[in-house]
Amino acid sequence: MRLLRFVLAALLATFAPYAAADEYPSRPVKIVVPFAAGGPADVYARYLAQRLQEAMGQPFVIEDRPGGGSVVGTEVVAKSAPDGYTLLLMSNTHTVNESLMPNKPFALMRDFTPVAPINYSDLVLVVNPAVKANTLQELIALAKAGPGKLNYASSGPGTPYHMAGELFKAMAGVDIVHVPYKGSSGARTGVLGGQVEMMFDAVTVMNEHVKAGQVRALATSGNSRSKVMPDVPTVSEAGVPGYEAVIWLGLMAPKNTPQPIVDRLNAEIAKIVSSPQTQAEWVKQGAVPMTMTPVAFGKFLDDDIVKWARIVKISGARADR
To answer: Which of 90, 215, 260, 316 could join 21 in a cystine, given CB atoms 3.0 to 4.6 angstroms apart?
Structure first.
């Protein structure tokens, strides 16, 4: 009898995660976005949540928890139950922070499980129309003529906007002062209003302001020209050879989330981002869908952590400025 109970217990332990996955989700799922509302992370989290809700039959609720360069919201997820009902919308801010903020209360690959990537997009370097530079070379010349006189905005330390600026400074050999805001919307408003001269921003958000003439686009940050800004040269071809920086988004769950739940989320997200409707909508915005297995996404994250650790060291970027 004791042996029978032992065998039954072992079988229950073996198949419990799969049973949970079959029933998942049985209640609302929360996606924590550790960035301010209105930026690419918030926009695409909401896009994804709506379609996951349609596909999986339960509400997927967005909770914006900005602060501390994404640390505040990310810590909330790290401390959540690993049951698939609290997820993290993350970006390369998180892979940068592994070297930029080594003393934060969590470690990305220790405390989280990779679920799926979502998309990536180029950044665009824009200047307020009052800046006397119509090309990237003219901006570089202006910066070299007055070291420390020009400022660039970002959505906070460690964000793609910040690191794109620091990489540009290092590779172009210019001294431009970083002005961190609490979110990309504030940084964008600062440039549009002329309080700050320039910023790197996602083409998915800034393109409309460029079209309206509110800012001047000098260069995009990818390896090739952006499909939504084909007349704008890349930073590399405009005068800083080898420059490349993008913003990408993905989804993670607390460590030890049952693998069947992770696999189901991965499969549903892959269906969404690969659908013709999503691809048609995103290509107009300048976003490129990404699909990977959880294992492949984990390898991608490991590689990105190494890449940005090298750039943090080269650029001298710091979280306190």
So the answer is: 260
